[in-house]
Amino acid sequence: MQAGLEARKILDSLDLSLEERKGLASPIDGSAMPGLADSDAKAVDAAIAASARAFPAWRDTPAPVRGELVRRLGEVLRANKDALGKLVTLESGKPLSEGLGEVQEMIDICDFAVGLSRQLYGLTIASERPGHHMRELWHPLGPVGIISAFNFPVAVWAWNAALALVCGDPVLWKPSEKTPLSAFAAESLLQKAVTDFGRAPVGLSALLIGGASVGEALTRDARVPLVSATGSTRMGRAVGTAVAARFGRSLLELGGNAATIVAPSADLDLAVRAIAFGAAGTSGQRCTTLRRLIVHESVYEPLVKRLKAAFSSITIGDPREPGNLIGPLIDGHALDGMKHALQAAGAQGGTVWGGEVQQGLYVRPAIVEMPGQSEIVREETFAPILYVLRYSGFDDAIALLRNVPQGLSSSALTTDLREAELFLSARGSDCGIANINMGPSGAEIGGAFGGEKETGGGRESGSDAWKAYMRRQTQSINYGRELPLAQGVKFDL
Ligand code: UN1
Questions:
Q1: Is the separation of the CB atoms in 278 and 440 below 8 Å?
Q2: Residue whose CA is closest, atom 3 of ligand 1?
Q3: Can you give the residue range of the structural domain that contains 161?
Q4: Does residue 113 lie within any of the structural domains?
Q5: Which residue of 21, 279, 382, 471 lies most exposed, with the fewest beta carbons within 10 A?
């Protein structure tokens, strides 16, 4: 069945009948997806106003009760996992197992957030003053703007929304222009949970469909104290500076350009599988995708040979077919970007293997052997291109790994304890994520997710990432009858 028709059927099955409007071409077969109307400036302003109005009531709802809404969202997602996962596949072109995995990631973060709703812990602090105590309390922050990317069209929203909601914050979501339908379906599932829950204020959550102007409205508006944005470094720079100019907070998850070091002691069977999934999985369109492989000279030739064989065996085609490991690129722009990068790599001394277009937006992942970490290698191209570099000393490998502007994810394949620990030490990887004996992509939700340098410094998802969605208050309480001043200061009237 044409992808566009199948998408409409799924939306119907979710009771989301759309009016006849032609949307984007599905990356799977070019058929027209159902279209959604853009939110105009007035609608965006009204949604922000409604979310600001919803805030006091949600703030005053006890956190474990807020958790109950997120628990219901998790249940609605469980019940609709197949439909939403399929829609993600139809719209983004990722294989169905990954579309379903993405919804699982949403369910997982809901579970995490429900537990968190009873654990928004602050500290108690010993006071230097007699008859005093001190503590830190975390308060809700206000409406959170979420700007998400096409490659994880719903999971990254869920990371943000599930945490923001238990933290007492309304959410305003601008999804990627490339994947509005998955967002529309996910938002409607949240609305269903809101209806079942019955105690949420009007305006608690909104979906804003449209392009850069919608994102700009969120970044400029002082009623939105936090903007969490996932996407390109260029977009993040614009968001970060605009939000900073009004002293708002931003949480940025931008370019990746991940690297993996393959040491002489690496288990090569495991390495081939980890590298193939890391570099070619999701057609190279994760921000954690492995793009730079740094291989010890002693294993370089056999590994590259095995990687070429493995990449040749990757089945490429309709992502709805269970046998296909990778689907298409998202659009012609992504394909042009890949072609441009391969040309540039050739011009910078690289030897290109693979990378051919099979048909439409389906491409064979490329392996490019590079003489050094040239300009094109230091840039992130959102496509399945694996640059391979050679090293002789482990310190040199780490230096190569670090010598790029981005700092999201990294890994080392080694069974040498000293190398592994060095890689994980302050002298090792400079990324937000560092793995041993696995690839750099496919993180679980329990850890904090994000990276350093041009990746933007934000942390989402697990661990204590929730703190970004709240404001911290330091409280001092005097339960005595004297008024001692800190630092022994005297001010006796
Ligand atoms: C992204 O590409 O923006 O770690 C998120 C991973 C996924 C999330 C990627 N869990 O690859």
A1: yes
A2: 287
A3: 3-254+456-474
A4: yes
A5: 21
